[in-house]
Amino acid sequence: MPGAAMGTRRQAKRTTMRGMIIRMIMAAIMITTTVITMTSMAIMTTITAIPMLMTTNKPPRPQRRAVARVDEEHAPESGDVNGIRESEAAAMYRLMTWLSPSFPVGAFSYSSGIEWAVEAGDIGDAASLRGWLASMLADGPGFCDGVFLAHAHRAAASDDQAGFADIAELAAAFAPSRERQLETSAQGRAFIEIARAAWNCASLDRLMLSCGGAIVYPVAVGLVSAAHAIPLASTLHAFLHAVTSNWISAGARLVPLGQTDSQRVLAKLEPIVAATARRALKASLEDLGSATFRADLASMRHETQYTRLFRS
Question: 161 near 206, Cβ under 8 Å?
Answer without folding.
Answer: yes
